[in-house]
């Protein structure tokens, strides 16, 4: 006979399986299943489809993945809003939030909804969203915004100096209100670091397929895409503008490894465990990674971490020690040494320089 218990941890659930043999011996097995915490922001006059469609696609992806492998990630999908009052969507369908921004829940992925007509009122009605979004982005969360919902990201300042797109009808107003954002009018999808923008709900569907690939793999993503779209669609890569594009080579296993590193750079990562995760020996992993990216896995991880650190130095008031910890370095000296090696300046000097440039730009705008 056997008994199963479970322990919740920050990154997943560990199932403890106790097996009692006929000889009264106890065998013990620990199985950890990762959890992806996904939050959908709700607000009045949002397009219901900008939340319900990706929800259904994500649930389908989880169902397919876990039918093939019970160790596949579990999705914890919740809704969040300014307060607990049910919101009324543009379709007239009420949606009730699970939690509120002030509760500061930790998220892996956040979906910001499309808004009907002028978004200015909705931006004012949700003042608590901005600090929550900023905190989650600093903690490494992925944020997806669709249509004029991109304004939530722009209003928070998170898109300053970064690429973005929005609904075509709002291009001119968006440019007027957010001159610091690099608006890409010709693209349906943009990506800058962990910030993704989709111009329409159709583009959001393509983006959701991409997230399913990041969480699971290409096979599961293809399966979901076939279920939700019968026509031949342009791929996610063909429809978008990407900073630091990942998918530039044909080695699918290494693409998945790159995505995993982008999603987990803040953790204590042992590359031997990453190789094992993708069912490769360390030697094979290093060789294939170098062929695909022209960098070793360690160099690639270091560049991700330093790129995120640069952004935090420019846009946050976190201490350098806090930034080092958020990007995966507990040794402050090692972080500073690596930063100086790659950029020929210290984190403190870099922060002073980029903030002086921002101040100068403000003075002349």
Chain-wise SSE layout:
Layout: E1 2-8, E2 12-20, E3 26-41, H1 49-68, E4 74-81, E5 87-88, E6 94-95, E7 99-100, E8 109-112, H2 120-125, H3 129-138, E9 142-146, H4 150-155, E10 163-164, H5 171-177, E11 182-183, E12 189-192, E13 195-198, H6 201-215, H7 218-228, H8 236-239, E14 240-242, H9 252-264, H10 271-277, H11 282-293, H12 297-315, H13 320-326, H14 332-343, H15 347-364
Parallel strand pairs: 3-4, 3-8, 4-7, 8-9, 9-13, 10-11, 12-14
Antiparallel strand pairs: 1-2, 2-3, 5-6, 12-13
Helix pairs in contact: 1-6, 1-7, 6-7, 10-11, 12-15
Question: What does it look like?
Answer:
With 365 residues, this protein is of the alpha/beta class. The chain has two domains: 34-242, Class I glutamine amidotransferase (GATase) domain (Rossmann fold, 3-Layer(aba) Sandwich), CATH 3.40.50; 252-364, Homeodomain-like (Arc Repressor Mutant, subunit A, Orthogonal Bundle). It has helices at 49-68, 120-125, 129-138, 150-155, 171-177, 201-215, 218-228, 236-239, 252-264, 271-277, 282-293, 297-315, 320-326, 332-343, 347-364; strands at 2-8, 12-20, 26-41, 74-81, 87-88, 94-95, 99-100, 109-112, 142-146, 163-164, 182-183, 189-192, 195-198, 240-242. The strands form three sheets. Strands 1, 2, 3, 4, 7, 8, 9, 12, 13 and 14 form a ten-stranded mixed β-sheet that branches. Strands 5-6 form a two-stranded antiparallel ribbon. The protein has a two-stranded parallel sheet with strand order 10-11. The N and C termini lie far apart (72 Å).
